[in-house]
Every structure is written in C-alpha cells, then in structure tokens.
Amino acid sequence: MKIFKPQTIKVIFASFVTFGSLQASEVTYGNFTRDQGFNLEEVPVLTLKEGELFEVISANARTPKTVINIKIKPEGTDSLMWQRWWVVNDRATKLRNTMSDGTTSEPPSQLAVGPCDIVLSTFVQTSPVTGPYRISYKITKPSPVNTSPPILLPPTEDPSKNWFVKLQVSTDLKNWEDVEAGQFLGSNTARFFRIETSEEGGE
Question: Which residues contact 48 (CB under 8 A, 6 or more apart)?
C-alpha cells in the first residue's frame, strides 16, 4: 500500500495590536493522500494542539460511491464521528448528514478544536477500489499572548509608604491617559499601553 505524507503550506497573517507589538495568527494549508485499504480501517492524519482549529476544505476519492469518514480522537478515548463525505463520482463529493441506512443526523460542525487527533476511515459501497483518496484542510493556530516586561515595586520596611499603579494608553507615544484595565474593542488606530508607578508617603 502506498502512503503519501501530508503536505503543508504556511501563511502568516499579521496585524498590529493595542500593545504596539506584532501579533500573528498562523494558518497552515495541507493535504493528506492515501491508497484506500480495508473498509472502516482508521488511519491517523495529524494531531491538533490546544486551541488549534481544523477545517476540511475538500475530500475526494477515485472510486465512486466512496464514503470518507473524518473523526476526532481525544486523548484516552475512542474516535468520534465528526464529518462524513460522500463521493458521488470521481470528480465530485458532498458533505452530507445522511447515514448509510438512510437516517439523518444533525449537520456536522465545520470546525474541530484541539487537542485531539484527526483520523480517517473509508467505506466503499461498490468494488473494485481503483485508487487513492485525499482530503485538503486548513489549520488555524491561536494567536500568541502579548506581555510586557514586569514592573518592580521595591521592597520597603516603611509601613507609611504607598505605591500607586496606573494603566495608561496612548495613540502617539507622547500623550498618555489613565484607563481601567479590562477588555478593549478593536480599533483602526494603533494603541500603546504602559504601566506608571508612583510612591507616596515615607521619609
């Protein structure tokens, strides 16, 4: 049986965020191709890390009336059915929620979220099997979290000394305003944040 290794293409989408540093979301496009084996034999494709999103772009098979089952497998559990693709002929496939016995289920989700393994199995309703099957997919990795250098409040034995800590925001790195820490909505203007500390009291 001939096995093809997954092929991937990485694309970086970058944007400036409120801290003034660069935050990037990495999107990976890839495909997995394999000769069809025994019916319902599960084949591992890849492993999703925490927070990664997996989306199937297309699924194809050379043999008509092939069913391609795409499953998720959380660690320590059996695989769970996620999507079922039906190959109408060797040129067209459909993502369907119709089972082989004619019953229906809820439409499948378009995204799987890690951590989990992605596994495949196929079922051919007719014979003989005449070639491989293939899926193309997209993986979106979570954006990194931006953190600033730590701010030091020096130790003191003077109980009368107080420290004031303020969060400030600026759009030009010149004029700063005090703001409350919390959630900030997106803006078409870059925003920069800093921590200001000041002390009061003591000798």
Answer: 54, 112, 113, 114, 115, 116, 117, 118, 139
Q: Write out pLDDT tens, residues 72-101.
A: 999 999 998 888 888 876 555 677 655 555
Q: For tokens 């099997």, what's the residue?
A: 129
User: Which distant-in-sequence residues (6+ apart) come within 8 Å of 130 by Cβ?
Assistant: 62, 63
- The β-bridge partners of 15 are 23
Terminal-to-terminal C-alpha distance of the chain: 82
Could you tell me if 133 and 112 lie in one domain? yes
Same domain as 189, residue 118: no
Q: How far apart are CA 77 and CA 63, in angstroms?
A: 31
Does residue 2 belong to any structural domain of this protein? no
- Assess whether 90 and 177 both reside in one domain: no
| pLDDT of amino acid 203 | 44
Say how many domains are in the chain. Answer: 2
Q: Which two tokens stand for residue 138?
A: 């997209």
Which pTM does this prediction carry?
A: 0.58
Residues of the chain with pLDDT under 50: 8, 10-24, 202-203
Q: Residue 166: inside a domain, yes or no?
A: yes
- Residue 16 in any domain: the answer is yes
Cα–Cα distance, 54 to 196 (Å, whole number): 41
Domain end, chosen from 99, 121, 140, is at 140
Answer yes or no: are the C-beta atoms of 61 and 120 closer than 8 Å.
no
